[in-house]
Every structure is written in C-alpha cells, then in structure tokens.
C-alpha cells in the first residue's frame, strides 16, 4: 500500500477545513483530502453569510441572547460567548485571505435573518459560500506546505494504541481514480468533512453530504452528540429536486413574506416575530400549513422588496428562479421545507478536540455546543472559522513527536470497488425516504420506532450488497458503498438520539410529547461508542 506522510491530515475542504489548513500550514506540512473537487462542499452553496456583531447599534450580549434563545436551552453559554466575541475577528481573517464581502457606504453591508434581533449577517450578495470557497481555495492552492488530494475519500481513521491509550494518527484514504487505498500517516488529524443532510429525501445539501466525518469518528471511538436536531430550511424552491435550491432566509430579512394557498400571510398566527421567527418555528409552520391545505407548497412573496435592492442583493436567486420561469420581482415563489443542517456531530471541547486524542473536528461534522437544539441562522460559518482557528492553535501545542513508536489498529479495508451500483442507488433512495418520513420536521413515537426497525433491515441489505461485490470495479463504486455505510451509521445515531429524547425541544418535535421536559432532558444527547 502506498504511504503518504505529513505532520497534519485535514479531511474536508469546506470553510472549516480550508481555514484550519491555512493556519497550521504556517508552521507544519499538511495533507488535505477531499472526496470530490475542492470547491464542491456544503460551504460553496451557503447563500446567507456569517453572523457577527460589527454595527455600533448591535452588541455581543444581544447576539449571545439570540443564540441561546434559538438553541432552546441546550447551548453552552461559555462557548456561545466565546464564539460571539471572536466572530468579528474571524470576518477580518477571511478578508485577509481575500474574501470580498458586500459593502455599503464603505462599511460591511449587514443582512437580517430569523431569530436575530439586529441586522448582523456579513455576506457576499447571495453567494457568500462560493466567495469564501473561491478565495480560500486559491490561498490553499498557492501554499507551499499544503498538499491537496482531490478525489480522495477518507475510509477509516488510523488509530494507534499504546500504554492503554488510543490516538488518531492519520487515516486510510481511497484514491478514487486509482481505485486503491493509501495510508496517510499524520501526527494529528482534523475532521472537517461537512454535514449529513443528504440522508433526507429533500435537502438543500449536495449529494456528497453523507455524514462521512461523523461516521468515521464514531467508528474510531469518538463521542457524538445531539444528532436528533436536524434543521429544516423553510424555503427551498419547489419542486425540491434531490438537491433543492435554497431561497435564502435573507430574502425574508429584506421583507419577503410567506403566504398560504389563498395568498394570506400565515406566520403572524404562529409567532410574534412572524416571518423572522427562528427556523424551527417557521419550518413547522410551513409543514402545518401544507398539512391543513393539502397544497404541494406555500408561497414566498418578495414582490414588495424594491426592485433595485432585489437585483443587487440576490442575483443568484433571481437567476435560478427566472431560469425556471418565475420572476420574483413580480411573482410569488413556490417553496417547501427541506433538510438543511445537522446541529449535532462529533463532540468537541472549546478547542475542537474530540474524545479521541489526536483527533479534532470542526465545521458541520462537529458538535461544539454552540447550536443547542436549533442553530441560529448564519452562526455556522462563523463557528467553523472560530473553532477551526482555535483548534489550529491547540493542535500545534500538542503535536506528538513524529517518531513516536506505535502499534496501529487494523482497519477493515474491504475492496468494495465492485459494489452493485443499482442496489446501492435503490438502498440510498429508501434510506432517504425513511428518514424523511420517520425523522422529519414533526415526529411521532410510533413512526420513529417503526423507522428504527426498518433501518435495521436496510443495514442488512447493505451488508448483503457489500458481500455480493465483485472483486474488481471502480473507485466510484467503492465510494458509493462507503458513503451508504456512513449514511446508515449516521442514521443509526439520529435514531438513537431521537428515541432517547422523549420531549419536544427545538428541532426535535414529537407530537406524543409536545412539551419541553427540563427536569429530565435539559442536557445534550451523547452517544458514546462501546468497544
Ligand atoms: C440562508 O441563507 O437562509 C441559510 C443561512 C444558514 O443556513 O445559516
């Protein structure tokens, strides 16, 4: 097997992976792997922006309060406080790396989104993620100490054992084009492998968001938390194809209004903050309106936004809508809710350390304790930069010697290159339907239990399909098999957290237990792997 050696391995090229790599590469050699092209990440699709206090009329206190409020009692206050105070500097760092944010009158222009008491979203029109990815990608490409391996998928973490302690020392990675695994030896590893919302039938995430980081970390012994809190975005363009196009919450921030099938604004009936209520409330309202009316979608009405502002602020959204024959300047936009963000993930401390020494996590695959039961809009890009930068400092203080002798736990590196593609495609579709139906916006105890039983059967079918894999095939099929295995692992974690929490809180809404139970559940839902 080919071996690659480096000081530090980074998995994932979204905002967390790229900022982390750039920081540690100031002093160390870095190998950065991504299963697709570097630009293809969840970050790239982010429209909204980064929440940060930059206006004089705003305050850290109010940003903290808004975050805690959205998080429904589960945010860790010390971490939220740190995030909020560090977010303005994170914006400055991104600007230094070449990211261009929209300005008005020489100052950063600020958007407003649900749950925020002030306009505080720093953005780049409605293509913030793409602007960030483009700038960071270029900085990474030009960096002499970063080796970027595209089309390389992390299969399994490399765990060393010695003196009763386990430590992550790199990963086994599939070179997809060559269709062969290689061993990446590293003194420490950062997992920034992105989200898991592609587990759902309708999602704003690209198909690659299959929870690879969470699954690999869990299998390597890392604690995972809060996986029941799946955030559904209330305004995905209808019809929501497999990868639904997002209509940013910032459109409501500029004055757009949700309307029912009769053209009536309905959000004021659900929450005093109406269309700018936190996302869990708006998504549930959309769900309930569709249930009541039987309509396939609700409407987002942006026609009251002045035409000039609409064109300048949302060129990407206008282009997509007009391409589909809808002109938001004069017509309502048909929208539905779609899975968007997973608030849970690999549990970390304030410096991105997981419970496995040598293994760090940041970005959507991590659970840092700042989002609680419902992420405040646009807090996640800020969180990714702030925690990645802290992790970079901490990791460099704690890097072990490269020469430390270790014995490595064997990984199971079965060759799945002949994985039967048709079966894989069919199983993936069934898993996505199962998650949508049984662990969606509104849940019932019976449906969740039924979903859990069906999941066990799907897993058996996946195992059988892997067993039937012929010994030769392609790297792409190997990726399909591993992604599906990861999705099934992540689904199991969602199920386990969702069944444990017999209350309704934030994004976890169960009709059988409609209220918060602070006595028993005012705490994170941890899943600790057993040997
Ligand atoms: C949006 O633009 O509505 C999404 C922002 C986010 O998910 O934070």
TrEMBL record:
<dbReference type="InterPro" id="IPR005288">
    <property type="entry name" value="NadB"/>
</dbReference>
<protein>
    <recommendedName>
        <fullName>L-aspartate oxidase</fullName>
        <ecNumber>1.4.3.16</ecNumber>
    </recommendedName>
</protein>
<dbReference type="InterPro" id="IPR015939">
    <property type="entry name" value="Fum_Rdtase/Succ_DH_flav-like_C"/>
</dbReference>
<dbReference type="InterPro" id="IPR003953">
    <property type="entry name" value="FAD-dep_OxRdtase_2_FAD-bd"/>
</dbReference>
<keyword id="KW-0662">Pyridine nucleotide biosynthesis</keyword>
<feature type="domain" description="FAD-dependent oxidoreductase 2 FAD-binding">
    <location>
        <begin position="7"/>
        <end position="381"/>
    </location>
</feature>
<dbReference type="InterPro" id="IPR037099">
    <property type="entry name" value="Fum_R/Succ_DH_flav-like_C_sf"/>
</dbReference>
<dbReference type="GO" id="GO:0034628">
    <property type="term" value="P:'de novo' NAD+ biosynthetic process from L-aspartate"/>
</dbReference>
<keyword id="KW-0274">FAD</keyword>
<dbReference type="InterPro" id="IPR036188">
    <property type="entry name" value="FAD/NAD-bd_sf"/>
</dbReference>
<comment type="similarity">
    <text>Belongs to the FAD-dependent oxidoreductase 2 family. NadB subfamily.</text>
</comment>
<comment type="function">
    <text>Catalyzes the oxidation of L-aspartate to iminoaspartate.</text>
</comment>
<dbReference type="Pfam" id="PF00890">
    <property type="entry name" value="FAD_binding_2"/>
</dbReference>
<dbReference type="GO" id="GO:0005737">
    <property type="term" value="C:cytoplasm"/>
</dbReference>
<keyword id="KW-0285">Flavoprotein</keyword>
<dbReference type="GO" id="GO:0008734">
    <property type="term" value="F:L-aspartate oxidase activity"/>
</dbReference>
<comment type="pathway">
    <text>Cofactor biosynthesis; NAD(+) biosynthesis; iminoaspartate from L-aspartate (oxidase route): step 1/1.</text>
</comment>
<feature type="domain" description="Fumarate reductase/succinate dehydrogenase flavoprotein-like C-terminal">
    <location>
        <begin position="429"/>
        <end position="527"/>
    </location>
</feature>
<dbReference type="Pfam" id="PF02910">
    <property type="entry name" value="Succ_DH_flav_C"/>
</dbReference>
<feature type="active site" description="Proton acceptor">
    <location>
        <position position="279"/>
    </location>
</feature>
<keyword id="KW-0560">Oxidoreductase</keyword>
<dbReference type="InterPro" id="IPR027477">
    <property type="entry name" value="Succ_DH/fumarate_Rdtase_cat_sf"/>
</dbReference>
């Amino acid at each position: 097997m080919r071996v690659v050696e480096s000081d530090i391995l980074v998995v994932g090229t979204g905002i967390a992976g790229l900022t982390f790599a750039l920081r540690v590469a100031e002093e160390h050699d870095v190998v950065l792997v991504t299963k697709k092209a570097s630009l293809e990440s969840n970050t790239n699709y982010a429209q909204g922006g980064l929440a940060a206090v930059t206006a004089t009329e705003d305050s850290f206190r109010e940003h903290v309060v808004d975050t805690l409020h959205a998080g429904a009692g589960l945010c860790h206050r010390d971490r939220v406080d740190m995030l909020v105070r560090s977010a303005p500097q994170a914006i400055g760092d991104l600007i230094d790396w070449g990211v261009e944010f929209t300005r008005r009158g020489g100052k950063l222009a600020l958007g407003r989104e649900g749950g925020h008491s002030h306009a505080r979203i720093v953005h780049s029109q409605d293509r913030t993620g793409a602007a960030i990815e483009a700038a960071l990608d270029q900085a990474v490409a030009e960096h002499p100490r970063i080796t970027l391996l595209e089309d390389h998928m992390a299969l399994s973490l490399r765990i060393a054992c010695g003196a009763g302690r386990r430590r992550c020392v790199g990963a086994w990675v599939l070179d997809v084009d060559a269709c062969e695994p290689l061993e990446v030896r590293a003194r420490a590893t950062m997992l920034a492998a992105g989200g898991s919302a592609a587990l759902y039938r309708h999602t704003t995430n690209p198909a690659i968001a299959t929870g690879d980081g969470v699954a690999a970390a869990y299998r390597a012994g890392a604690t995972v938390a809060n996986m029941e809190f799946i955030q559904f975005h209330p305004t995905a363009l209808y019809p929501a194809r497999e990868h639904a196009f997002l209509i940013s919450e910032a459109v409501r921030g500029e004055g757009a209004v949700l309307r029912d099938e009769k053209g009536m604004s309905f959000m004021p009936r659900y929450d005093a903050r109406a269309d700018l209520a936190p996302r869990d409330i708006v998504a549930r309202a959309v769900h309930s309106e569709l249930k009541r009316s039987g309509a396939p979608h609700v409407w987002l009405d942006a026609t009251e936004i002045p035409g000039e502002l609409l064109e300048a602020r949302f060129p990407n959204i206008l282009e997509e809508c007009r391409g589909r024959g809808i002109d938001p300047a004069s017509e309502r936009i048909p929208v539905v809710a779609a899975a968007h963000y997973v608030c849970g993930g690999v549990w970390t401390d304030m410096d991105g350390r997981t419970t496995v020494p040598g293994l760090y996590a940041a970005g959507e695959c991590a659970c840092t304790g700042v989002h609680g039961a419902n992420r405040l809009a646009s807090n996640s890009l800020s969180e990714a930069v702030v925690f990645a930068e802290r992790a970079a400092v901490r990791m460099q203080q704690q890097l072990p010697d490269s020469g430390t002798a270790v014995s490595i736990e064997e990984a199971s590196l079965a060759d799945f290159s002949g994985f039967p593609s048709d079966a894989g495609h069919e199983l993936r579709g069934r898993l996505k339907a199962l998650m949508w139906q049984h662990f969606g916006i509104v849940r019932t105890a019976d449906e969740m239990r039924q979903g859990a039983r069906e999941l066990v059967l799907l897993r058996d079918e996946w195992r059988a399909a892997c067993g039937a894999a012929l010994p030769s095939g392609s790297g792409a099929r190997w990726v399909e098999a591993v992604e599906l295995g990861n999705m099934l692992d992540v689904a199991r974690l969602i199920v386990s957290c969702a069944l444990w929490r017999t209350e309704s809180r934030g994004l976890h809404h169960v009709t059988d237990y409609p209220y918060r139970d602070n006595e028993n559940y005012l705490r994170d839902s941890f899943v600790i792997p057993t040997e």
